[in-house]
Amino acid sequence: MLQRECLAPGVHLNCIPADKFNRCRISLHFRFPASREKATDQALLPLVMDRGYAACPDMTQLTRKLARLYGAALSVETSMQGASRVLSVSITGIKDRFALNGEALTAEYAAIVFGVAFDPYFENGCFSREAVEIEKTTLARQLESEINDKRLYCVRQARRKFFGDSPAGIERDGYLADLPSVTCESLTAAYQEMLRTAQLDVICLGADEDVVRRMTLEKLAGVQREPAQLENYLFMPAQPVEHFREEMDLVQAKLCMLFTWNQCAKPEQLNAFRLAMSVFGGSATSRLFLNVREKQSLCYYCASRFASPTAFMMVDSGVEPANAEKAEQAILKELNDLVNGPITEEELENSRRGILSGLNSVGDSLAGLENWYYNEILRGGNVNTPEQAARQLNEVTAEDVRAILSGFRYSVSYLVTKKEEPSHAE
Description:
This protein has 426 residues and is an alpha+beta fold.
């Protein structure tokens, strides 16, 4: 069970029991308002921070240090959570009691993860100019390669049309056109703003809690803090459906359909959403899989997902270009049939068992436990254990599923398909 302690305004220490593991994990999650103007700086931050910190600025030196700590693993990543951005710094390694020579490993891990987060390597008060230029090249290649994964490209294009100028539509990886204007000075300013405005959740799994608590307070003592008030949920108003089509040189077309729920999702509805997604298109027993893919052979894959922070459902599929319209109509028919027709006990229980299996496996890894509890924190309200969620899931009925699915409104369709052959009139 999670133990949550407020250390300062906007700062919480979250301790999760991890007795069955021989490894421990310390993570710092900074959540702050996403900004379109600063999106590319914010996207570049983890790449530069991952290279080292003040006490260990050389990448090779840092890699050797982690190796000496029995192969500890460090990661710095960013993600989007509704209208917020999250920057996460994590380290994983073996517990103190397994050290061969009695090393205080938690203190070593904490020094690294807090050093990366609070004491980055600066030259003349800014991030290293060389490091910034190297990682700008890395990020540019990443952004340029989006088009190579047609499924990912189609999904992102659909999201761009769906969200428009909404803060929820800000790109996690920034914008290629903005990269030339990113400098070591602008990146340093983005970092300092993050420290000042972020809500910080420190998550400790199996590590020495006193060491982590003390290190958190020490690092915060030198930071001017003005934590921002952040919204956990938002939604896109319903709008007339828009269809977009893009032609490319490809064989398998990609179709992405987005639906809005037209109101913010509530934490207590999450289990009903889970079951609704599984019944509709989130499992091998779902309507989309069995009817659209298997029986009608209209797509190679077809799955539905729900994003609770922004209350939208996505259905993406790979289809033969000639079957794109048929697949779209078949998907809409399955949704309509679930809303207006019967939902069998068999399909409901098949989906329920699949979700319960996933809930039972949450505690199989440190990362699984951390992801579960941090997502619970982000949603607000009560922080449920996987066991509590399982009990709540067992209470969800077919009528609950129908009520969830009936709230979705079709908003955006994006089709990436092959170029049409020019007609040759005789």
